Amino acid sequence: MFADLKNRLSAAARRLKRALAALYHALRDRRAPLAARLAGAVTLAYALSPIDLIPDFIPVLGLLDDLLLVPAGLWLTWRLMPPLLRQEYLDKAETYTDSLPQSRAAAAVIVCLWLVSLYALYRFFS
Q1: Is 94 within 8 Å of 18 (Cβ atoms)?
Q2: Measured torsion, CA atoms of residues 117, 120, 122, 124, in degrees rounded to the nearest 10
Q3: What DSSP assignment string belongs to 25-38?
Q4: Which of 77, 73, 70, 97 is nearest to 27 (CA)?
Q5: Contact, 15 vs 75, CB < 8 A?
Q6: pTM
């Protein structure tokens, strides 16, 4: 039972990694529609950010944001992308062997969001 679950999770992780690599290729291609590139940039930045919007140590919510936000962003990006381009990027991702870099810029944006949220809470309660 646990071996089956582990295999299914590993397969899902491989598919997610392939989709993120395809997204990386899509963002670098001028043929991709601007709306799809913007949605993809936000999704990829969040996925590669070393800091999460909701920290993982918060029970359930910490992991739920990763399980919902990244796939939702991928879904939106692929819906905005023409099918032929999408397939081309997925094919490129199949042969992509480099690891995707972590995004320090996305981490900075998330830290700024946390600071603004903390300031807003301070102003609300004071």
Answers
A1: yes
A2: -140
A3: HHHT-TTS-HHHHH
A4: 77
A5: no
A6: 0.68
User: Contact, 102 vs 50, CB < 8 A?
Assistant: yes
Q: Which candidate, 84, 97, 109, 106, places its Cα nearest to that of 17?
A: 97
Q: Which residue, among 78, 102, 98, has the nearest Cα to 90 in the 3D structure?
A: 78
Domain span including residue 6:
2-125
Contact 93, 19 (CB under 8 A): yes
pLDDT, tens digit (0-9, with 9 covering 90-100), for 88-103? 998 888 877 566 666 6
- Counting the structural domains of the chain, the total is 1
**Residue 101 pLDDT:** 62
- Mapping DSSP onto H, E and C, the string for 52-115 reads CCCCCCCCCHHHHHHHHHHHHHHHHHHHHCCHHHHHHHHHHHHHCCCCCCCCHHHHHHHHHHHH
